[in-house]
C-alpha cells in the first residue's frame, strides 16, 4: 500500500463498526481523512485506497467528482469559499468575489503565488439568513461587507 499506509490503523478501527463485507462504505470517511492528512487527495492515494478497500479506481473517482469538498490538488493555507447561491448573490456575494479577486490577484479556483490563499466559489453554504457568507477554511463569516472582508483578510496575512 502506498501513501495512505499510515492511516490504515484508523481505517481498521472504522471497519469494526461495519458488518462484514461492507468495507466499500468506508470510501467517503477514508477520503475525508486522507484530505485532512495531506490537504488534498493525490492519485497515489486513490491507488492505495482502491487496493485497501478492494474497489475499482473509477468508484473512487466518481465519489471525488461528486463531492465538491474533496480536493484533487493542493490549496493555499487559507481557503476562501464564497457562497454564490441566490440569497448570497442578492446580498452582494458577486461583489465580494470580485473584491477578493482584485485584492488577492487571483480568480476563483486559483491560489496566490505565495500559496497563502485559494479562492473558490461554492453553490451553497446553508446560511441564507446571514448572507453573504464566506467560509475561511472551516469557519463561517456571515453578513459580510467590504470593510469586514478587508479586516478579515488583514488578520489572515
Question: Characteristics of this structure?
Answer:
single chain; 157 residues; alpha+beta; Arc Repressor Mutant, subunit A; Glutaredoxin; 2 domains; 5-stranded mixed beta sheet; 7 helices; 44% helix; iron
List the helices and strands and how they pair.
Layout: H1 8-15, H2 27-38, H3 43-53, H4 57-66, E1 78-83, H5 86-90, H6 93-104, E2 110-111, E3 117-122, E4 134-136, E5 139-141, H7 146-156
Parallel strand pairs: 1-3
Antiparallel strand pairs: 1-4, 2-3, 4-5
Cofactor: [2Fe-2S] cluster
InterPro entries: NuoE-like, NuoE_dom, NuoE_N, Thioredoxin-like_sf
Binding site for [2Fe-2S] cluster: 83, 88, 124, 128
Number of domains: 2
Largest sheet: 5 strands, mixed
**If classified by CATH, what would the architecture of the largest domain be?**
3-Layer(aba) Sandwich
Written as H for each helix and E for each strand, in order along the chain, the element string is: HHHHEHHEEEEH
Provide the low-confidence segments as ranges: none
- In which range does the helix fraction lie? 40-55%
Global outline: elongated
* N/C terminus separation: 39 Å
What proportion strand? Answer: 5-15%
Count helical runs. 7
What structural class do you assign from the helix and strand content? alpha+beta
**In angstroms, what is the radius of gyration?**
18 Å
Tell me, what is the CATH class of the largest domain? Alpha Beta
The tally of strands reads: 5
Query: At the fourth CATH level, what is the homologous superfamily of the largest domain?
Result: Glutaredoxin
Q: Provide the residue-averaged pLDDT.
A: 93
Order of strands in the sheet with the most strands?
Answer: 2-3-1-4-5
By CATH, the topology of the largest domain is Glutaredoxin
Amino acid at each position: 500500500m502506498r501513501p495512505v499506509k499510515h492511516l490504515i490503523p484508523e481505517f481498521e478501527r472504522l471497519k469494526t463498526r461495519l458488518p462484514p463485507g461492507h468495507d466499500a462504505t468506508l470510501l467517503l470517511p477514508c477520503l475525508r481523512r486522507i484530505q485532512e492528512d495531506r490537504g488534498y487527495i493525490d492519485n497515489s492515494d486513490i491507488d492505495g485506497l482502491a487496493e485497501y478497500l478492494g474497489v475499482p479506481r473509477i468508484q473512487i473517482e466518481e465519489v471525488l467528482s461528486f463531492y465538491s469538498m474533496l480536493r484533487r490538488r493542493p490549496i493555499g493555507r487559507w481557503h476562501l469559499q464564497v457562497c454564490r447561491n441566490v440569497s448570497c448573490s442578492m446580498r452582494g456575494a458577486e461583489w465580494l468575489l470580485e473584491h477578493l479577486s482584485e485584492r488577492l490577484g487571483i480568480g476563483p479556483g486559483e491560489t496566490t503565488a505565495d500559496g497563502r490563499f485559494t479562492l473558490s466559489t461554492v453553490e451553497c453554504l446553508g446560511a441564507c439568513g446571514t448572507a453573504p457568507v464566506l467560509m475561511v477554511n472551516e469557519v463561517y463569516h456571515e453578513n459580510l461587507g467590504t470593510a469586514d472582508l478587508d479586516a478579515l483578510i488583514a488578520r489572515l496575512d
